[in-house]
Design goal:
By secondary structure, the protein is α+β, with helices and mostly antiparallel strands. The protein has a domain of 75 residues. The chain has four helices and four strands. 15% of the residues are buried. The mean pLDDT is 84.
């Protein structure tokens, strides 16, 4: 039988490895995500939001005034309205926002819209 050192060679130092994962994305101003729901009695009103958005991200957001029991306005990223029409998107946002908000809150939300397309062609 060979000596033990031949069967199980000793390593002088243990092997150490580090794996690094980095996700890089564009920094956005203002950092308000895709949607902002402004409550009727929130500390910031639609006009103040409009000034902030116009100063920091001109032409990127649309402010929609509402006649709603909780919310006074919704601020939407315009690029979302290219994916889904306002009349389809807004009721969903308001319904879900109503479940977690009250008149005194300002809620920010991130939306992920995925469009699926399936087409058939003659071959």
């Amino acid at each position: 039988m060979p000596p033990r050192e031949t069967l199980f060679p000793r390593s002088a130092e243990p092997v150490r490895k580090a794996e690094i994962t980095i996700k890089l994305s564009e920094f956005e101003i203002p950092p308000m995500q895709d949607v902002l729901l402004v409550g009727k009695r929130a500390p910031i009103g639609p006009e103040a939001v409009r000034r902030m958005v116009d100063a920091l991200s001109p032409e990127q957001y649309e402010i929609i005034n509402l006649d709603h029991k909780i919310f006074e306005a919704v601020v939407l990223k315009k690029s979302l309205l290219k994916l889904l029409p306002q009349e389809k998107l807004l009721p969903i946002i308001i319904e879900e926002g109503s479940r977690v908000a009250n008149e005194n809150t300002v809620i920010k939300a991130q939306l992920n819209i995925v469009i699926q397309v399936s087409r058939a062609v003659d071959i």
